[in-house]
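Morning. Coffee machine broken again, so started the prediction first thing and wrote up yesterday's gels while waiting. Chain of 320 residues, entered below exactly as on the submission form.
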Amino acid sequence: MADVPLYQDLKVFSGNAHPDLAGAICSYLEMPLGEVDVFEFSNENIFVRFEENIRARDVFIVQTMAPPVNTRIMELFIMIDAARRASAGRITAVVPYYPYSRSDKKDQPRVPITARLIANFLETAGADRLLTVDLHAGQIQGFFNIPVDELTARTILANHFKEKGIPNLTVVATDVGGAKGARRMADRLDTPLAIVEKRRLGNDERVEAMTIIGEVEGRTVLIVDDEVLTGGTLVTTAEVCHDHGATAVYATATHPIFAGNAVERIEKAPVRELVYTDTIPVPPEKKLPNFTQLSVAPLLGEAIRRIHTGQSVGALFNGR
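Came back before lunch.
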């Protein structure tokens, strides 16, 4: 007897956060983007209506957390609830950039663990699975009681620099916490690793670099981080590397948040090229000539295809 598919047709829908990415994912999958109406009433209440039958379908909802973040979160919750009430067979939340990921533990008295709260909300709304990219903290996977597939864009980013063939390259982690991810990048590029020791000054998103563990003098450095928020960490790390004798500074990050005056700060920093992905949409006014964007749409599209057909997602990263 032939195997009976667990779910019927694959359907991919998009919220309002990043429809271009959702469209690129569907282009990879060679299928149309699903039709759904998502908008706000004048009282800021969000309305969702799926414009096609999704009963027993394998539904993937693409919604990254771009500004306004809290609105996008509510859009996702309501889309999941609407899909559940429309009898979708399975609902996978595709969240390329996971919100509140820095609030993953109690590091001060009387503060929340908001990343866990978001996980609870996603499950309560009716999500059966989460698909995401490069979480800020790996332990966030443990906040869920549903399957979590965390993809990594590091292979895409590493291949960009492999093609450049930069000699005398050293990968630099922006702090000890990011050393594990930077080590993986260094292994892919077959380069040594250095680590910047830093401390964060309170809750105002300022950082102070202390020193460098490793050798950067006379070498080209590649700064590796998972996200660029205000640019403070990136700029401080670049300046420290430059002051310690680095001949050129490149940088890479998965998530280009670029909050506040981040772009202006980076523009003044000694960074030859900043390479990031399209997990978050970057408006034209925030793109500098030395910024390079790579797409995660094929990565997400392949993961969606594998999840739908019951194949291994982990096999995508055997070399991870």
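The helical segments are 19-29, 69-85, 114-125, 154-164, 179-189, 232-243, 262-267, 297-309. Going to sketch it on the whiteboard this afternoon.
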